[in-house]
């Protein structure tokens, strides 16, 4: 009896790759303080390019998504397609630079068909793209791609923190919806081992607490008198306390 007849897949045949979209933020960029400057691949200073740390991450992403041995970590897949935003002169090149080494390893071109502001068109194409896809984009606009994918479960965070370069957002097709997950990259020193979450809002004061009146001047004097009395009680010698008490009572 064949394995297919028993409802089992053959172990000597690779299982088909699911439709997966893996979104990353571009790697490290120059800091306003000027501690790290952007540089082009040829070493020329360029404020629209990655920093040295950014280029190191770009190289490390090759081993993350396309290791020379074995398969990528759980939750990730070897990409069939790589996307980055179209960039014009005088605008950021960092997203494309981030995935250039990965695309080169895979023998692929970085698709730059869509520019910033065209996230809707990009998402529409991603929903029809088979296999595994990597997208590198500006963190401020990643949520726009997600919003146009369709139903996503569970809902991703609404904001990507400005200081996080170290996470992969994955969207795996599951029927008519997408299953969302996060995979920490853990590639460079300082990378965090946990996912991105939205900031927790602080609880507002309750109505009862907000309605508590401020102490009146008389109450403040009473509280101050008690505090002063407690201080003298613990810091004056016993005879002096008696003398102070007798003077106050006279």
Outline of the structure:
The chain has 250 residues and is an alpha/beta fold. It has helices at residues 52-65, 94-106, 119-126, 142-147, 207-210, 217-235, 238-249, and strands spanning 20-25, 81-83, 110-111, 132-137, 152-153, 167-174, 177-184. Strand 2, helix 2 (94-106) and strand 3 form a beta-alpha-beta unit.
Topology overview:
Layout: E1 20-25, H1 52-65, E2 81-83, H2 94-106, E3 110-111, H3 119-126, E4 132-137, H4 142-147, E5 152-153, E6 167-174, E7 177-184, H5 207-210, H6 217-235, H7 238-249
Parallel strand pairs: 1-4, 2-3, 2-4, 5-7
Antiparallel strand pairs: 1-6, 6-7
Helix pairs in contact: 1-2
Describe the structure.
- This protein is α/β, with parallel strands linked by helices and 250 residues long.
- It has two domains: 15-184, Phosphoglycerate mutase-like (Rossmann fold), CATH 3.40.50; 214-249.
- Helices cover 30% and strands 14% of the residues.
- The chain is built from seven helices and seven strands.
- Helix 1 packs parallel to helix 2 (94-106).
- It is globular, with a radius of gyration of 30 Å.
- The model is unreliable at 1-15 and 207-250 (pLDDT under 50).
């Amino acid at each position: 009896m064949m394995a297919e007849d028993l409802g089992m897949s053959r172990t000597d045949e690779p299982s088909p790759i699911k439709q997966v979209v893996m979104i990353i933020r571009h790697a490290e960029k120059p800091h306003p303080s000027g501690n790290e400057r952007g540089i082009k691949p040829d070493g020329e200073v360029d404020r629209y390019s990655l920093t040295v740390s950014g280029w190191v991450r770009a190289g490390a992403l090759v081993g993350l998504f396309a290791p020379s041995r074995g398969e990528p970590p759980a939750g990730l897949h070897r990409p069939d397609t790589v996307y980055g935003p179209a960039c014009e002169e005088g605008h950021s090149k960092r997203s494309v630079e981030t995935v250039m080494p990965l695309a080169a390893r895979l023998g692929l071109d970085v698709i730059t068909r869509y520019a910033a502001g065209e996230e809707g068109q990009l998402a529409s194409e991603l929903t029809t793209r088979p296999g595994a896809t990597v997208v590198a984009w500006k963190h401020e606009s990643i949520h726009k791609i997600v919003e146009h994918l369709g139903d996503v479960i569970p809902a991703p965070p609404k904001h990507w923190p400005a200081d996080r370069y170290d996470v992969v957002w994955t969207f795996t097709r599951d029927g008519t919806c997408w299953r969302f997950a996060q995979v920490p990259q853990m590639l460079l020193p300082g990378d965090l081992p946990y996912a991105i979450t939205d900031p927790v809002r602080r609880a507002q004061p309750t109505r009862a607490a907000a309605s508590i009146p401020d102490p009146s001047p008389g109450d403040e004097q009473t509280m101050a008198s008690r505090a002063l009395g407690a201080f003298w009680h613990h810091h004056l010698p016993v005879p002096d306390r008696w003398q102070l008490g007798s003077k106050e009572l006279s």
